[in-house]
Amino acid sequence: MENSAVKKVLVVDDHEEYRQSVRQALKNFNVEIIEAKDGKEAVEIFTKKFKNERFDLITMDYLMPELDGAQTVIKIREIDKTVPIICISASIKIMRPQVKHFEYMYFLDKPLDSKQLIQIVEDLELG
User: Fold this and answer.
1) What is the pTM of this model?
2) Cβ neighbours of residue 13 closer than 8 Å, sequence gap 6 or more
3) CB under 8 Å to 34, separation ≥6 — which residues?
4) Residue 1: inside a domain
């Protein structure tokens, strides 16, 4: 691991099993994982954390209660235009056109292929 500082990752998904799959995929990285069960909670966490410290990565589902993934990305991009966001969803074809114009966006289909997620994280040098 090149960078020894702990990286902060916000994992946003309304299904615990998908949050668990992201945690499992990132277990060998030096990361602190903060979880949100929907977009509204993610924006609240992001807003509070952003005042004091920065997230290094966000993973985002699309179909969620309160705010969907695209609405959540838009709100987060109003605050931070550069935090990498990996959209992980069975609805990527619906979500992608709504947010693809933002920079630092990555897209993975569900079910999650942990190797693809790990590759993106390594490419972002978060490990």
Assistant:
1) 0.92
2) 19, 22, 37, 59, 60, 61, 64, 88
3) 8, 9, 10, 11, 45, 49, 55
4) no
Residue 16 lies in a domain: yes
Summarize pLDDT for 1-57 with one digit per residue, the tens. 345 688 999 999 999 999 999 999 999 999 999 999 999 999 999 998 777 778 999
- Which sign does the torsion angle of CA 59, 61, 66, 70 carry? positive
- Is residue 45 assigned to a domain? yes
* Residue (of 61, 81, 57, 80) closest to 71 by Cα position: 61
Range of the domain at 69: 7-123
d(CA 107, CA 100): 9
Q: Which residue type sits at 111?
A: P
CATH of the domain at 29: 3.40.50.2300
Tokens of 71: 């609405």
Distance separating alpha carbons of residues 60 and 88, to the nearest angstrom:
6
